[in-house]
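Cross-posted from the bioinformatics board.
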Amino acid sequence: MKVVCTLRVNGEPHEIAIPPHWTLLEALRYELGLTGSKQGCDKGDCGACTVIVDGRPELSCLTLALGAEGRDVRTVEGLATPQGLHPLQDCFDLNGAAQCGFCTPGILMSAAALLEHNPSPTREEIKQALAGNLCRCTGYTKILDAVEQAAARLREARP
Amino acid sequence: MLRLPRFQYHAPRSLTGALELASRHANEFMYIAGGTDLLPNMKHLLFEPPHLISLRGLRELDFIEVQGGGGIRIGALTTLTRIAESDLARRELPSLAQAAGLVAGPQIRNMGTLGGNVCLDTRCVYYNQTLFWRKALGYCLKKDGSQCHVVQSGKRCVAAHSADTVPALITLGAAVELQSPRGAREIRLEDFFSGDGVKNTVREADEIITAVRIPPQPRGRRANYTKVRIRNSIDFPILSIALAVDFREDGRTCDNVELVMTALGSKPRRIGNLHGVVEGRALTAEVIQAVAHQAHRQAHPLTNINVDPEWRREVAPVYVRRALERAVRAG
Ligand SMILES: Cc1cc2nc3c(=O)[nH]c(=O)nc-3n(C[C@H](O)[C@H](O)[C@H](O)COP(=O)(O)OP(=O)(O)OC[C@H]3O[C@@H](n4cnc5c(N)ncnc54)[C@H](O)[C@@H]3O)c2cc1C
Ligand code: SF4
Ligand code: FES
Ligand code: FES
């Protein structure tokens, strides 16, 4: 049996009907068509499903969709604006920080949450913030470079 | 893709509301807090409760407060991130803040709660697996079977107690506050666990942990937490060591050492017979070696964790020694 719930995703409320045992990740991907958040391990190990919930990165594969009601969910689809890509996305591209790209949406969300709380993170702080996101392609170095560069750009852009 | 089994979901807004739902659905429900332990287990079909009662809406259980007499109470719904980042916890309860900050990775610490960590199900390589995997090998005592793959002749499950905050809390003398439709009770955390890995706590199914209470700490106490794991960024412990050392006024002479280790059997292990070794003595290399020796004698890692138990046993005294050395240096 389905139940009706309202999810606030990337600033927009969406009223959807889903079975109670669906995770937030399943609701995003299979009901809202937001397939940016990836279904990797589906049990908390990899971070590919990371979304920002009430300002903090959380795992959508271990969040019940009904448990996300009333909370503010942001996914990778909400990063870019009509003006263009988020600096993190642009710097990932410039630095070759994405190879197969499967881990990238989750890493972008962990990094975005970091830069919102801490505009000038040290390399060590970036590593800590991305500790829950596994990448099997890049070896991480370029990802750290990209986040550092994006942080610098965001600082410059601020008044 | 791992699908959850079906259930009905309830999101009460208060403790009273949650307890009412618990009475209504007696024996057919489980509580869920952050879900970071329960949901993977449900995806592995280790639990299939018809009803889930979410505790997330119980905002009254999200707090860290100083009590009148100087003790500290932490609400069960407080996240691990909040504890790890709390100035109060870092200053007054450093080993607890360290342990909370070493659980899993950042996202899980943002979701996981203290109450959920205290109730973390025991873990075993033969248990935390999909139904397909468990069926292929043959089920075990903890779920659907009649034998243990770790201790073949064993009659009791020895799956590993693996919660990081618990050993730290035990060395600090913490107690858990529980509330059920029948009333409230408080249990010392040390007495909260049993040696049966199938269900290793004395919590009744409908009891909600409301808070953890940590009594005022002795002056001169220095506490720290050491966690050994394969990947330092995300993994469960393969051995963990919580230490609290009480020094006398001179800052050198030792009164007492509390040492609790976990990721061994089904309950955290307090290393005993230390009082006679340390009381009234400075923690010289020789005394430290004697404490480390006790840890080696009393800690018995098992094959419930996928890392060589012999190796884990041999490194235990090394990490105990280093933890003691850190406590000495912290003076
Ligand atoms: C990849 C991964 C790595 C992990 N690594 C670690 C680790 O290194 N160390 C570690 O300790 N844990 C680890 N965990 C386990 C888990 O994330 C933490 O233990 C967390 O603190 C559990 O809290 P929760 O609120 O999510 O619990 P839940 O999953 O919501 O609940 C766990 C259990 O406790 C019960 N429960 C929860 N709250 C209450 C309450 N207030 N009263 C009564 N019962 C309650 C639930 O019914 C359930 O049985 C890991 C998990 C994953 C997925
Ligand atoms: S310790 Fe034995 S009974 Fe317990 S989960 Fe492991 S194999 Fe099963
Ligand atoms: S898919 Fe959620 S952590 Fe791997
Ligand atoms: S780019 Fe392939 S997993 Fe990270």
